[in-house]
Design brief:
The protein is built from 10 helices and 8 strands. The protein is α/β, with parallel strands linked by helices and 239 residues long. It has one domain (5-235): TIM Barrel, CATH 3.20.20.70. Strands 1-2-3-4-5-6-7-8 form an 8-stranded parallel β-barrel, surrounded by 5 helices. α3 packs parallel to α4 (93-110). The structure holds cytidine-5'-monophosphate. Cytidine-5'-monophosphate binds next to β8.
Length: 239
């Protein structure tokens, strides 16, 4: 299977989401990301509806809380049968381990395969200067991301969310099958919006990202399906 292009469905409600998806052929094997905005509005029913259509799903709720709370929340998420899900690596080793335990427990309860568990390192909207000033982190941004990747791997996570700019350094510090999922993707002609570490689809492929997440360059395009196809073919052009 080729490395996936995941569309971030950052929409306020089901109606808007459904109108957007109606612009794609029904046989297109979409992989979509549901974030906080849509999940808080449309909830688990949305997951069931999209799964019934045969879509692959990334539930991106970026959990961050005390270990027991994350474990219990992940037990609920595990039962939904999604393909990928997320926690913040900054929650620390104990929280990450608890999340991994909860996710496996949920999957076993529902008799579904466990989701790939991904840790958010530094948000792709964070610059190095901002990280150093606001988080009082005195190393470079790639060093911070590589540190969180090792922490996540040791805690039992399957991979991380990072910018494609940091994939090479992560690959130096983690197992070959460790997943690097990269948002902050912008075709050369697109606006960067709030993304500070944006990378083109081709550069993400060259950096050996495991999957890319693309939101506004597709969701805000005048012709979303054409924008999706152009980004997908650029992403898949480098083997
Ligand atoms: O519209 P855009 O392509 O910038 O959307 C990127 C998506 O990836 C958003 O849904 C955002 O929440 C998510 N994301 C990110 N950076 C991370 C983790 C997730 O941009 N580090």
């Amino acid at each position: 299977m080729t490395n996936p292009l995941i569309i971030a469905l950052d929409f306020p409600d089901w109606e808007t989401t459904n109108c957007f998806l109606a612009q794609f052929p029904t046989n297109e094997p979409l992989f979509v990301k549901i974030g906080m905005e849509l999940f808080y509005q449309a909830g688990p029913q949305l997951i069931k509806t999209l799964k019934a259509r045969g879509y692959r799903l990334f539930l991106d709720l970026k959990l961050y809380d005390i270990p027991k709370t994350v474990q219990n929340a992940m037990t609920v998420i595990g039962q939904l049968g999604v393909d990928y899900t997320t926690m913040h690596a900054t929650g620390g080793q104990a929280m990450l381990k608890a999340g991994a335990i909860g996710l496996k427990k949920g999957a076993a309860l529902a008799n579904v395969p466990p989701a790939k568990l991904l840790a958010v390192t530094q948000l792709t909207s964070t610059s190095e200067a901002q990280m150093q000033a606001e988080q009082l982190v005195n190393v470079s941004l790639p060093a911070s991301v590589a540190h969180y990747a090792k922490l996540a791997q040791n805690a039992g996570c399957d991979g991380v969310i990072c910018s494609a700019q940091e994939v090479p350094i992560i690959r130096e510090h983690t197992n070959p099958d460790f997943f690097c999922v990269t948002p902050g993707i912008r075709p050369a002609t697109s606006q960067t919006n709030d993304q500070k570490r944006a990378v083109t689809p081709l550069a993400a492929a060259q950096a050996k990202s495991s999957a890319i997440v693309v939101g506004r360059p597709i969701t805000q395009a005048t012709q979303p399906y054409q924008a999706y196809q152009a980004i997908k073919s650029e992403w898949e052009s480098f083997k």
